[in-house]
Amino acid sequence: MGSCLSAAGDGGQASASSVSGTHQFTIQGYSATKGIGVGKSILSRYFTVDGRTWFVRYYPDGYNFQSSGFIAFYVQTLYKPVCRPVHARFTFELLRPDGSVAYALRSDRPCNFDTHCNSWGIRAFVARNDLEGAYLGVLHQDTIKVRCTVEVVNSQRKRRGGGRQATVASASDYAANAIRFFISGTAPFDVKFSMGGVTFEAHALVVAAQSEWFAAALYGHGGGERWVEAGLTCIPISGTTPEAFQGVLHYVYHDALPEELIKAKGEADMMPQLFEGADMFLTGRMKAMCASRLRQFINDDTVRSIMELAQAHSCEELRQACQKHLGRPRP
Question: Least crowded by CB within 10 Å, which of 56, 111, 179, 233?
Answer without folding.
Answer: 233
